[in-house]
Amino acid sequence: MHLFYYYNHPVLREVAFLLPPLLQWRAGTFRAAIEMFRDVQGSAATFLDVGCGSGAFTRQLAVHFPNSRIDAIDLTPRMIDFAIKRNRYPERVKFRVGDFMALDGDYDAVFALYTIMLLPLKSAVEKLLDLTPDGAAIFNLTIPNTLMRLHRAFYSIFIGSQVNLYPVQRAVAEISEVAQIDDLRHVATSEGSYLIAVRRKR
Ligand SMILES: C[S@@+](CC[C@H](N)C(=O)[O-])C[C@H]1O[C@@H](n2cnc3c(N)ncnc32)[C@H](O)[C@@H]1O
After folding, report:
1. What pTM did the predictor assign?
2. Which domains does the chain carry?
3. Which of 52, 54, 70, 74 gets mutated to test ligand 1 (max ligand atoms within 8 A of its CB)?
4. Distance 66 CA to ligand 1 centre (A)
5. How many angstroms separate the Cα of 114 from the Cα of each of 10, 94, 111?
6. What residues are in contact with ligand 1 under a 6 Å CB criterion?
7. What is the pLDDT of residues 119-138, one digit of tens each?
């Protein structure tokens, strides 16, 4: 166990996101994920937010899709406690602690922002698609630029998990083995982040 497990400090994590570059990157990625969903699918009655953390993106979903029901899951209990305390829509947004790889469900669409990079890519994508058999799964990855290599070092010290960094071509090749790629967009360019929308192969 790490002396300082970053995900156990959701307040600190949210304060970190007040720093202009982090704020811009995350807000830009959240905005672009919603735009991408509108373009590839349009609407949905049910969403799943995988690795929801403090619930910042879950809130955006709730605001943009006011008639939707949203489940949000995260492995870290303290993140979920924090998200539940700040939940403005408790009647239609439900947070729970758990590993999404062990979750059962059928959602109209699934999001996983800043999370799939922590997991084995192909099995994580397959699981996202099990959870939305007829819909789109949207997630982001980051390229191995200098900044992201530093970020990866930070993660291995404070979280103990490996952050996987993918050049775009490699990500496309691996994901195409298990899913159909509907869209790919570079978003927070200086962060090296890109969003991918996938569906089940027909
Ligand atoms: C970098 S944070 C992203 C949080 C949020 N999506 C955001 O963009 O602010 C990654 C989150 O994924 C969660 N996580 C990692 N593996 C997971 C898994 N297998 N199932 C559910 N959550 C997971 C971690 O606990 C962490 O809160």
Report:
1. 0.91
2. 6-199 (3.40.50.150)
3. 74
4. 24
5. 15, 20, 10
6. 7, 50-53, 56-57, 73-76, 79, 99-101, 113-115, 118
7. 999 999 999 999 999 999 99
